[in-house]
Design a protein that fits this description.
The structure holds two protein chains of two kinds. Chain A is of the alpha/beta class. Chain A is built from 13 helices and twelve strands. In chain A, helix 7 packs across helix 10. The longest helix of chain A is centred in the C-terminal third of the chain and has 18 residues. Chain A is globular and about 55 Å long. Chain B is mainly beta. Chain B has one domain: OB fold (Dihydrolipoamide Acetyltransferase, E2P), CATH 2.40.50. Chain B has one helix and five strands. Chain B is globular and about 40 Å long. Classes of the chains: A alpha/beta, B mainly beta.
Chain lengths: 370, 103
């Protein structure tokens, strides 16, 4: 059974103070329906990906909120897996499609983050960690421990971390939906405010509002991007329970599952949207996904191997770093963006990599032209 | 930390006080949740206690390096507020550092 992506829509990402959570959801849902040229009643089920609307907006019960956009109130499910909510929302929809429960479904991811202060957001995002075993931690602190471990093993990474940020900001210049349309220099990254050593402000993805939606179908359609394979794996939620802090084991497992299902070689992949919530996360990702040997991801980035004209284009949307990271929307946006690129004929094979927390959840999708 | 969470968590803390370990990796947190705002900057560490590893806050403004020997102590772990308990819990401090002022 083949799953095709027949509709996509992504709102502008950014600090969208004039738009509510519901405004964002409606814009993405309506946009995907228009893009697919479908009537609302043709959607048989809805999957809503979101991390923390209950904390940010006191809005729970998102499945019902989105279902009421449709006159026939289709069955709807909300999926939460921290920053991997979007990727896992799509996996959940795929399971329903492959079980032949539905033929055509909509997945929408959303987060409305900018209504609260940065410190309140820091507290809410820390909920993606183990709040007993990692009490007092912050999301940047956990990735800082991964960065410190990586540097202890492979040497200082500052110029490499900065190269990730510079490259992703440059990529975002061509993405109209991106939060930032501003080039930055390695020097600006290296001199920005320390957040959790060695990670600095410009190593971090921003606080963002946004939504993204895709429509998936198992009906026979031609000339639409296809989901060739997916993988989903878990690791210990707390870092203390991990076997390694220089590899995200969930990523390595998820990509192997996805490649096996897709029946393609890693070398056929031309582009990847990877989970660069922090610059160190992109270096870990491109190594754990098998694009570069361990310890060489940073040098490859500095050498231009991860931009247009290089070995593989990483985060052409700007990634989480520059396109923005409305948490629940990110995994859906990765799929929507790549499907649009395939539809345009820019790429034939693409990979999306979405991570929850500091690596406890990883979801990998491989897309291809049909 | 909510009172019920604190009540459940503190049952285990007496077993940790005085335990010694070795820092595996550490960072200095400079942007925190509101609950730890007055502690900034503070260390956040992964410590090897032999049979198990544990993530903990460092005391005061001590900075740690991998290999540092540390001991678990009882300290405030979040800022008190008018509606919450004054929450104490386990932090670590350097074994060698006797003169460092901590919370």
């Amino acid at each position: 059974m083949k799953i095709k992506i027949i509709g996509t829509a992504t709102t502008k990402f950014g600090e969208l103070w004039d738009k509510s959570l519901e405004d964002l959801l409606r814009e993405a849902v309506d946009g995907a329906l228009r893009n697919a040229n479908l009537e609302p009643k043709q959607i048989e089920a809805v999957f809503v990906a979101n991390k923390a609307a209950g904390s940010y907006e006191n809005q729970h019960h998102l499945n019902a909120l989105v279902s009421q956009f449709f006159p026939h109130h289709p069955p709807a499910i909300r999926v939460e897996a921290a920053c991997a909510s979007g990727g896992l929302g799509i996996v959940t929809a795929e399971h329903a499609l492959l079980a032949d429960q539905y033929k055509t479904v909509l997945v929408v991811g959303v987060e409305k983050m900018s209504d609260l202060s940065a410190s309140e957001t820091t507290f809410i995002l820390a909920g993606a960690a183990d709040n007993t075993r990692e009490y007092g931690s912050t999301f940047p602190a956990l990735y800082a421990l991964l960065a410190q471990s990586y540097e202890a093993k492979f040497g200082s990474q500052r110029e490499y971390l900065s190269a990730v940020a510079v490259k992703n900001h440059r990529h975002a210049l061509t993405n109209p939906q991106a939060q930032f349309h501003k080039e930055i220099t390695a020097q600006q990254v290296a001199q920005s405010q320390l957040i959790a050593d060695p990670l600095r402000l410009l190593d971090c993805s921003p606080i963002s509002d946004g939504a993204s939606a895709v429509i998936l179908t198992t009906k026979q359609v031609s000339h639409k991007p296809q989901i060739l394979g997916y993988g989903h794996a878990q690791d210990s939620l707390d870092l203390a329970g991990r076997s390694s802090l220089t590899t995200l084991a969930a990523t390595t497992q998820a990509v192997e599952q996805a490649l096996k299902k897709a029946k393609i070689k890693r070398s056929q992949l031309q582009v990847a949207e990877v989970h660069d919530c922090f610059t160190i996360a992109e270096i870990l990702a491109i190594e754990d996904l098998g694009f570069f040997p361990k310890g060489q991801g940073g040098q490859a980035t500095l050498d231009g191997e991860t931009t247009i004209g290089g070995k593989i284009v990483i985060n052409p949307s700007g990634g989480l770093k520059a396109c923005g990271h409305p948490v629940g929307a990110t995994g859906v946006k990765q799929i929507a963006f790549l499907a649009e690129q395939i539809q345009k004929g820019t790429y034939q094979y693409a990979l999306a990599h979405n991570v929850g927390g500091s690596g406890a959840t990883a979801v990998v999708h491989i897309l291809g032209a049909s | 930390m909510e009172p019920a969470q604190y009540w459940r968590a503190n049952k285990n803390w007496s077993a940790w006080i005085g335990r010694q370990g070795t820092v595996l990796v550490s960072t200095v947190v400079r942007t925190s949740s509101p609950q730890q705002d007055s502690f900034k900057p503070f260390s956040y560490l992964l410590v090897d206690f032999g049979k198990e590893k544990k993530e903990l806050l460092g005391v005061g403004h001590q900075e740690f390096q991998p290999g540092d020997k540390v001991v678990c102590v009882l300290r405030k772990i979040s800022d008190p507020s008018s509606r919450e308990l004054v929450t104490y819990g386990i932090k670590v401090k350097k074994l060698e550092s006797k003169e460092t002022k901590d919370h």
